[in-house]
Structures are given as structure tokens and as C-alpha cells.
Amino acid sequence: MKKIAVLALVLLAIGSVVFAGGSKDSKASASGVKTIRVGTEGAYPPYNYVREDGVVDGYDAAVIRAVDELIPEYTFEFYPTAWDGIFVALEGGDFDLIASDLAWRKEREDKYYLSLEPYLWGGSQLVYKAGRTDIHSLKDLVGKKVAAGVGTNTTSQLEDHIKQSGAKIEIVYTDGNIVNALTEIDSGRVDATISSIVTTQLTAESLGIKIDGSTIAEWAPSSIHLLFPKTPEGKVIRDRIDVALKQLHANGTLSSLSKKYFFGKDHSTKEALAADI
């Protein structure tokens, strides 16, 4: 069994990636095993996070470890990186891929290679302070302030909704860290945010903040993908990993991992997610 190297360096600024060997290129050892560098936010449990012992954990990391078991010619290193710098780091050649709960969007597909095989499906929820009874759907956000992380999938969806509907919703942009959005909700400076209720609930509990959530029925579930640079090497790595993801779907591994990290819920396929909503 290969041993996955774990590099638990939480990076706080754009481009502040620290490299194990000082090189920006994937490296092949004398044995021919190539090191694949994986960028992940590391601050979005249970999708991805860094444990107290420094090990990167969460569903995203577990899927990569399962992929690692199926590809003997690759080994994987994790590079936890702040959300606001993670795409810049990929484009700068600091990673070979990002595994960080990234939903499909055309803008992303135009700019990067996405895994052809989704490894998860997700729905979005409105999250607000517990006890509020005036927020149930997107139309209830009119005249309200919504905290939204710059560059996230849900922020892009909200921007599109405002543009298309003309709804008077004020977006208060954040750095994408859910802690900051929850702090704004708790203080009353914003009315809501849009996120995964699972992640948000876990973080809220750790902060002592009470929240509620409502599923956004107007938005279809999103497929979640690994993301690679749009280079010849990026395509080679994407295609090899896609084969492994198909195997993990077929043998039930993704279903098992989803239940492990999402409190018994199987969101590994669109059909499984639909059955759970």
C-alpha cells in the first residue's frame, strides 16, 4: 500500500504555497511514481479540513486517498490553501488539481479541465439565524443582505438570479470563510448566507451560533468535480483519475464515503441526493 504524503500547511495568502521540494512541477521518483499535488481549502468540514494532528481529512481527501489506492503510478500530497488563493495557485502551477467541493459551472469548464465523472452531488440552502420565520425561498431575500464568498458557485448562482430577475438583494461579499458569514449573521449585519447546511451547522455549533436553513427549491442540484489546469499534462492526469472515479462509483466506495462523512447520507449520485432531499 502506498503511503500518501500529507503536507498540512495552512496557507493564508495568495500564492503562499510552500513546496516540499521547491519545484512547481510534478515530480517522478526513481521508482517512476509521480507525485500529484492536491490543493484543498482545508477549512470546509466535513468536505475538507485539517485535523488537530495536522492530517488533511474530509470527504474530498478521502476520495483522493481512494483514488490513490487504484493508481500505482501516482502518489498524492495535500496542500491546504485559503479559498481566495486556491485558483491562483492552480493557475500558477503550484498544484496539479483542486479537490474542494467544486460544483460544475460553465465558466470553470471553459477555463479548466473538470473531472468527467462527478464524485458528489450537492444542493444549496439558505442559512439564517435560528428563530427567523421570514426566509423560506429566494423571493424572501428581496430587500435583505446576503453574505456570499467571492468566486464560490453559490455566489455566482445568486448573482445570476439577481441579474435575471432584477430582485433587489444586496450581496455582502466575504472571503469565502464560512466563519465570517456566520459572524455577520449572528451580529445581524446580514440576514442570510447560502451554503451547505451540513458544513454551516458544524461550524455554527463550534462558534455557539444557532442557525436554521431552507433548501433552495429553485436551484437544481449541482455535480461536484475535481478541477485540473487546462494543459496537456492536466488532461493526462484528469483522464487517469476519471478511470479511478468510475471504479469507485461502481464498487460502492463513493457511496460508503458519503455516508461516512455526511452523517449517513448518500450524495454520491444525483439519484441518491434526490432521494434524500
Summarize the structure.
The protein has 277 residues and is of the alpha/beta class.
Walk me through what this model shows.
The chain is α/β, with parallel strands linked by helices and 277 residues long. Helices cover 35% and strands 25% of the residues. Strands 1, 2, 3, 7, 8, 9, 10 and 16 form an 8-stranded mixed sheet that branches. Strand 12, helix 4 (153-165) and strand 13 (170-174) form a beta-alpha-beta unit. Helix 1 crosses helix 7 (232-250) and helix 1 (59-70) runs antiparallel to helix 8. The model is unreliable at 1-23 (pLDDT under 50).
Observed structural traits:
single chain, 277 residues, alpha/beta, 8-stranded mixed β-sheet, 9 helices, 16 strands, 25% strand, globular, disordered N terminus
Give the uncertain stretches in residue-range form: 1-23
Largest sheet: 8 strands, mixed
Count of strand segments: 16
Indicate the percent of residues in helices.
25-40%
Distance between the termini: 38 Å
Outline type: globular
Summed up, the helix count is: 9
Strand content: 25-35%
Indicate the radius of gyration in whole angstroms.
Answer: 19 Å
One letter per element, helices H and strands E, the order comes to: EEEEEEHEHEHEEEEHEHEHEEHHH
Q: Quick check: average pLDDT?
A: 87
Structural class: alpha/beta
